[in-house]
Write a structure and sequence with these properties.
mainly alpha, 79% helix
Length: 106
């Protein structure tokens, strides 16, 4: 169950990271509310997962999902450049997340 919570926490991290772009410096009410709610939910789920999983693994996976997901959404939806190098390095992030899961012992 901790892994499910951690994956959901990582996906919420993607949501709040992308949401920041819509808050315009936290001057827009509803984008700010949704972004902060996503941030809080992501942190709570990370904390719950870290009760069972080693913090290094949990945090690494959470950050990896968030960073890779935000980069992918940025390229796919926000018009950020989708160069071969960016795709390669996002792929490395995903390999690292899978490696952390595979070697966690949980």
């Amino acid at each position: 169950m901790a892994w499910v919570l951690l994956v959901v926490a990582g996906l919420l991290e993607v949501g709040w990271a992308i949401g920041i772009t819509y808050t315009e410096g936290f001057t827009r009410l509803w984008p700010s509310v949704f972004t902060l709610a996503g941030l809080a939910a992501s942190m709570v789920l990370l904390a719950q997962a870290a009760k069972t999983l080693p913090i290094g693994t949990a945090y690494g996976v959470w950050v990896g999902i968030g960073a890779a997901g935000a980069a992918i959404v940025g390229m796919a939806v926000l018009g950020e450049p989708a160069t071969a190098a960016r795709i390669f390095f996002v792929s490395l992030l995903l390999v690292a997340v899978i490696g952390l899961k595979a070697t966690s012992g949980h």
